[in-house]
Amino acid sequence: xxxxxxxxxxxxxxxxxxxxxxxxxxxxxxxxxxxxxxxxxxxxxxxxxxxxxxxxxxxxxxxxxxxxxxxxxxxxxxxxxxxxxxxxxxxxxxxxxxxxxxxxxxxxxxxxxxxxxxxxxxxxxxxxxxxxxxxxxxxxxxxxxxxxxxxxxxxxxxxxxxxxxxxxxxxxxxxxxxxxxxx
Length: 183
Fold this sequence. Notes:
alpha+beta, Phosphorylase Kinase, domain 1, 2 domains
């Protein structure tokens, strides 16, 4: 973990940190960040890696996924393999409802390999939990803390929640259709 990194997730083998584009661009030469063009997205050869940050804007926030520091032995080997496999898989995809892999840092197959991803603001599980809390509370107008939402009627809030569920379901179905078509 580097100074200024904020832990946003932790799994069996990986940690995910939030990074601002400003931090990434500042440290790019030090970390060896590689960004990739869609037409040459691969982990196979260094010749197809483009070291250009032209698509990164300073206001963007990203997620950096890397191996946990406490992995050793078989867990380290499995973690290295899984992270490289995930990066290779994500680099082949381009869909608005599937997390986008922007690039990577470090050599694939090593402990210092990390993957740069678009920052996901809310997972499906987060949305589902939010919907469940909304259903469980008697005060259906307290979905959001903004003054404009507090003034909404129950009917308007219900319509917004149903609309959110339909849009989320459609987005999920669209992503699954895309993945099934790529088999």
